[in-house]
Amino acid sequence: MVRRIFSVGVMFSFLIFPLAAKVHAQKSDAPKQASFHVKNAFVVKVPQGAHTVRIWFAVPQEDAYSVITNFNVTSDHPVRYDWDSWNNKEGYVEVHNPTTAAINITEEFDLRRTEMRNKIDPSATRPLTDAERAALSRYLQPSTYVIVNDQVKATAAQIVGGETNPILAARKLYDWTVENIDYWVKDPDHLKASAVGSTEYCLGKKTGNCTDFHSLFASLAISSGIPARMIYASLLKPTLNGMAVDGSYHCWIEFYAPRVGWIPLDASLANIYGKRFTLNDKNKNLVELTTATGYHGYDPSKINYYFGNIDERRVVWSMGRDLMMQPAQDDGPVNSLPKAYVEIDGKSSTDFSRTFTYKELSASTSSGAE
Length: 370
What we know:
20% of the residues lie in helices and 31% in strands.
C-alpha cells in the first residue's frame, strides 16, 4: 500500500482562546519560552470483519502562547481537518472495508511555547452582567461528568460565602480544592483516579487525577456563577525528553472574570507541589511523571504560581467536554479529546495506542519564575 503524506506548510490559526485575558505581564520577570519537536503516533487496531473505521485525532492547537510550525501527518489513508463543537481543530480518517489489522497515523510538528505569566488584580474585575452571563452561557453549563447538584451548590456556597468578585471567589474555590483533594499519585496503594474525570467521584473520594480535580473546580465555579472551561494538553517533562512513551495527558482550567478575561489555573499541580507528603519508592516515579518541570520537594510558592500562571512545558490538544465531532460521530458525545476518538461500525472503541515523543530544541529562556 502506498503511504501518503499530508503536509501543512503554514501555521494553524486556531481560535482556541477567543477572548484573550487582559492581565498584566510582570515586567520584572518576563515569561519563559521553550521549543520542542513533537511526534504523536497512533495505532488503531482493526477487528476482523469490521466494515467502517472512523478516527478523530487531536492536533496541536495554536494560540497566543503556542506557535506551531512544520506540521506534517503521515497516514495510510487520506486525512481531512475540521472543527468540533468546541472549535478544536482535529484530524479525521475514515476507512471502509479495511484490509489491514491496524491503521497508522503519525503527526509531527515543532512547537514554541511561552509561559502564561500574569499578575492577577482582583480590583480590575466585577461581577458578571446579565448580558455577559448570556454571552458566556456555554461556559456556565454542566456536562456529563461536570455536574451541578444540590451537594455541589451547597459546597460552593459554603466555600465562597458572600463573595461576588469572581477572582476572589475563584481563589477561594481553588484554595479549598488544593487543600481538601489529594492527587492519587501521592499514595497509589490507597488512592486512585476515576476513569472519566468526575466531579462526583472527586468530591466523594477527595482524590483523583487532573481531570477529577478540574471537573470538581468547574462544577464549583459554575455553581458560583463563574464561567469555566477545561483545557487538555500534554506535559513536556524534562524526564521524558526523547523517550517514546504514551505520556498520557494533563488538563487545567480557565475561568472568566469581566474586564480581565480568561484566567488559567492548575489546582492539581498546585496540590502536588504545595502540600507536604512523603516521597517513597512507591510514589516517586508517579509524582515525577505527573509534574511539568520536575518534582524537587515541597514548594508552597507553587500554589500562588498556578493561580493565574501556567508553565511553558505544555502542548495544547483541545478544549471542552461532551464534544460533537465533525463529521458527526455515531456513539454519543465524546468526553474529551486529549488523544483520539475511534468508532468501529458505529460503536466507540478504545483499542488503540498512542506513542508520544518529544525532543527539546532549546532550553527555557528568560527569567520567569514558577
